[in-house]
Amino acid sequence: MGPTLLFDKSFLQMLTLDEAVVLDQFFAAVISPIFYAETLADLEKSSSAGRSPDDEVRIIASKIPQRNSAPMLFHPAFAVRELLGASISMDGRMFLSGAKTVSFRGIKGKIQDPGPEHDAFARWQTRHFLPRDRSTAKSWRQKLRRVDLSTLKAGVRAFGFLKPCHTLEQVHALAVGLVNSSNHQRDLVKLALAALGVNPRTERLVLDRWTVLREPALVGCAPYAAFILQVEAFFAIAHESGLISYNPNSRSDIAYFHYAPFCNVFVSSDRLHARTAKYFLRTDQTFVEGHLLKDSLSKLVTRYLARPAEEQDAGLPFSPPNDDAGCLVAQLWDRHKGTKWREPPQELSPQLVAAIEGLLRDMKAGQVPTDEESDLSRIASVEINRYTPKQRGSFRLVSKHIAP
């Protein structure tokens, strides 16, 4: 599995189906609910280029990563879990939505079967849209807009951080200063809850817990919730200074960053993302402009379609080419996976293969559900089950020599 990759709708739209297939082969895609909501919002728009809104969504759905993807929970659900005591890993690993925690001989693991999102993506490819798809997407859009900008600004102003700025660097410094504020932690938690748009009952539960804990620092006790507050405060301060406009598109675009902690690479063709990504990505993450990755994928498509028939029948390779110094996909693998993948693969002995297969069978038979574990550092194994078609676009995904 390749580096984890967060993408926005603008990037996926610009790809051909074959480019999307190669993307799916070499990256583990983080599918944000913002992408889901934006895609279904197209159903409410007028048709363009002679295509109906249903056709527009069908085309996008045909390119959604399938093999190594992980649909994410809506970010307020993550943050509230953390505020109520769960641990959220923010190191580039995907948070598996709908995964169950299991135990085998005292060792914890995670299993994620294809969830309702994958079923939805498959339906969309045949223009089959259920009422719940539309209502879920509409609910997410409404929750995003429920975060009242004037209320958020008032809270930032109360802490003394809503100041005129001439550059986004200044905006970022103020937003970071806010979340690292050492005073009035209960009020800071209230501001974080406002940025999440939670209901009054959830707010009471979180604040009651904070009181019991004797009001610890938000950034130390709930770093993901603090990160979301930083993104939202950045947006509010930048808008107040006239550096970012406020509209439904910018509201959705900035929300993609709420999922940035769970990826290695963020790719987008959006101008706002290009201007602001450096303020929200860690030094071990990479922002890639959409046209650059598209160009690299296009070259790989050309390369793989030119292979001899017997190589075509074997399916796509499991790693990008290691003989092209200019290949961006390979460069991203080097940065986020190290260079060991470039070494010739070692043949496993039949005895080792048999032992691994036996262990997997034992785990499958002996695993029992256990308490949910959010901290991935405590997880020994992850099993992601996906349906893989034999062919997608111009490429075989399963070797012709593997029995059905």
Task: Describe the protein's architecture and organization.
This protein is α/β, with parallel strands linked by helices and 404 residues long. It folds into two domains: 246 residues, no CATH class; 111 residues, no CATH class. It has 19 helices and eleven strands. A hairpin with a 2-residue loop joins strand 4 and strand 5. The protein is globular. It starts with a strand and ends in an 8-residue tail after the last strand.
Helix count? 19
Mean pLDDT: 85
Shape by Cα distribution: globular
Strand order of the largest sheet: 3-2-1-6-7
Please outline the helices and strands.
Blueprint: E1 4-7, H1 9-14, H2 17-26, E2 28-31, H3 33-41, H4 53-62, E3 70-71, H5 75-83, E4 100-104, E5 107-112, H6 116-124, H7 131-146, H8 149-158, H9 168-179, H10 185-196, H11 200-212, H12 218-221, H13 223-240, H14 248-255, E6 265-268, H15 271-276, E7 286-289, H16 290-305, H17 309-313, H18 328-337, H19 350-366, E8 368-369, E9 381-384, E10 391-392, E11 395-396
Parallel strand pairs: 1-2, 1-6, 2-3, 5-9, 6-7
Antiparallel strand pairs: 4-5, 4-8, 10-11
List keywords for this structure.
single chain; 404 residues; alpha/beta; 2 domains; 5-stranded parallel β-sheet; 4-stranded mixed β-sheet; 11 strands; 50% helix; 10% strand; globular
